[in-house]
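Standup notes
- DV: blocked on the single-chain target, sequence here:
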Amino acid sequence: MAFFEPARPAPFGALTVYRMVDLLDQVRMTYNERKLAKATERSLSRLSDRELDDIGLHRGTIEQVSGAIAHR
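- DV (later): unblocked, structure below
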């Protein structure tokens, strides 16, 4: 004999807690992505023009590269 349990509603406030946790997680991820982008920009800025040319970049594209990391 199969046992069937009807779906129960979520406890009061569970959806609000979920949304708050999700919002905090999004803020944390955005912060980490910006931190990584800034570190990438700093590292690439320290390279010489020759080193940048070796990896196919120019001084003017450093901001674009680091910005692409933040928006992936």
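- Follow-up: The mean pLDDT is 88.
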